[in-house]
Amino acid sequence: xxxxxxxxxxxxxxxxxxxxxxxxxxxxxxxxxxxxxxxxxxxxxxxxxxxxxxxxxxxxxxxxxxxxxxxxxxxxxxxxxxxxxxxxxxxxxxxxxxxxxxxxxxxxxxxxxxxxxxxxxxxxxxxxxxxxxxxxxxxxxxxxxxxxxxxxxxxxxxxxxxxxxxxxxxxxxxxxxxxxxxxxxxxxxxxxxxxxxxxxxxxxxxxxxxxxxxxxxxxxxxxxxxxxxxxxxxxxxxxxxxxxxxxxxxxxxxxxxxxxxxxxxxxxxxxxxxxxxxxxxxxxxxxxxxxxxxxxxxxxxxxxxxxxxxxxxxxxxxxxxxxxxxxxxxxxxxxxxxxxxxxxxxxxxxxxxxxxxxxxxxxxxxxxxxxxxxxxxxxxxxxxxxxxxxxxxxxxxxxxxxxxxxxxxxxxxxxxxxxxxxxxxxxxxxxxxxxxxxxxxxxxxxxxxxxxxxxxxxxxxxxxxxxxxxxxxxxxxxxxxxxxxxxxxxxxxxxxxxxxxxxxxxxxxxxxxxx
Length: 515
Ligand SMILES: Cc1cc2nc3c(=O)[nH]c(=O)nc-3n(C[C@H](O)[C@H](O)[C@H](O)COP(=O)(O)OP(=O)(O)OC[C@H]3O[C@@H](n4cnc5c(N)ncnc54)[C@H](O)[C@@H]3O)c2cc1C
Hints:
Elements: E1 7-10, E2 21-22, E3 35-38, H1 42-51, E4 58-62, E5 78-79, H2 90-109, E6 113-114, E7 118-122, H3 125-140, E8 147-150, H4 151-157, E9 167-171, E10 175-177, H5 179-192, E11 196-199, E12 203-207, E13 214-218, E14 223-226, E15 229-231, H6 237-244, E16 251-261, E17 272-274, E18 285-288, E19 294-297, E20 301-302, H7 315-328, E21 337-348, E22 354-356, E23 364-368, H8 374-391, H9 423-428, E24 435-437, E25 442-443, H10 444-451, H11 460-467, H12 480-491
Parallel strand pairs: 1-2, 1-11, 3-4, 3-15, 4-11, 7-17, 15-23
Antiparallel strand pairs: 5-10, 6-10, 7-9, 8-9, 12-13, 13-14, 16-19, 16-20, 16-21, 18-19, 22-23, 24-25
Helix pairs in contact: 1-5, 1-8, 2-8, 10-12
The chain binds flavin-adenine dinucleotide.
């Protein structure tokens, strides 16, 4: 039986019990870590999960107050097959490999997953000619189950597609998954296998970088000893690499804006509609989401590398996005938008999947340019990085026979497998019958279960991403205060201390707390 890893939060955050606060490095014990993973996006958390299958002393450290809060929270959430990846690249190899792993992995993680298929759609003569190129590339990438379709065949499968459709390529294994709970599940299992996790703490320096044992210096001045460092900081990887003097590379953020449509819109198409890709981008797609909504996006707007935060949306781009997406599905114009958001891809000028072992210092592994496919590739990329750690950074790998690789059955989220309509469940726990978020039908029982879950989420966003409360049609207008009150009451935190995503984002202290 494994000893569970420690969970520590930035000690400045009053929302956490004293025992969860990172006050002193002695809380981490005397032995240096074998591997410290800096950045808990989908890549860092997948690495922690896979590494926890071995007897390796691992730390996962993240500057945000939850895992998956960087680029990983703002994607199209498609598990790609890799049919359109650049041929003969590491990206193509890893995406194709991971796409085969995901159905089984999702079952283990208790992550909602749906194989909905995709169609690359041609709506004019020029595009029709390119379908053969799309098909040939898919075959070269080893995705041999793709199939060419005539315009009539596309219409038969998808009656609401554009009348102009001239043909398509069907990609049967393209799937949808829940990007939020993926990082959470990876982290929970890693922690249960002994990985320590620190949240809300930024790494700002590396001391003794040429020595076998280095020190990660945190923004709060603590020094954490480790033999190896993996930089999986996404958009922050360039800044971090500069700190330890890694090889130069440029991160050029590429913003992608999205429109989310109401739930009934999600029934209008059943497959992902993909445009013919260009040399720069996969283009604007229209897709059902795993949550039952309809999504259109993303745009592809390039920014110079000095722009680290460009996550706001713009009316002009959203308008262009709607025009582009409605070429594939014209009915989109009648569907009600319930939310808009932007994600930022970590585009590396030197190339995607830009990985450097012993990056100008022994024991440091830099991972950059995980731009458009990192959600899909994460389990295969994690395994690839583990082999690099072993072969090039001298990590001894011995399997941990006690490690678990799955979460228990009761981890399926309530929105996917609801309990409120199950008489037995409600009899056992009356909170499972108390609906808090009416749009998504999320109960008090769901929220409390997540508050008590291993990563001890305490912010409104962390509860939103775990339960979907505040993510429905009203976007939290109706339930946000009640969710805050449940967090406040259950975790004994004053209501005015409840924040959206950590210190500095506290909700108004004027909310009445007496009902
Ligand atoms: C618009 C858009 C659409 C996409 N669609 C898809 C899709 O459909 N399918 C797919 O497979 N992929 C998709 N992607 C790509 C995918 O989302 C990314 O490749 C993936 O999320 C990258 O994960 P990451 O872990 O590398 O980065 P991140 O998620 O950004 O994680 C890096 C983490 O490092 C932390 N960090 C940074 N600096 C420090 C520091 N100094 N100290 C501590 N922590 C630090 C950050 O806070 C962050 O949480 C899309 C991306 C975008 C933007």
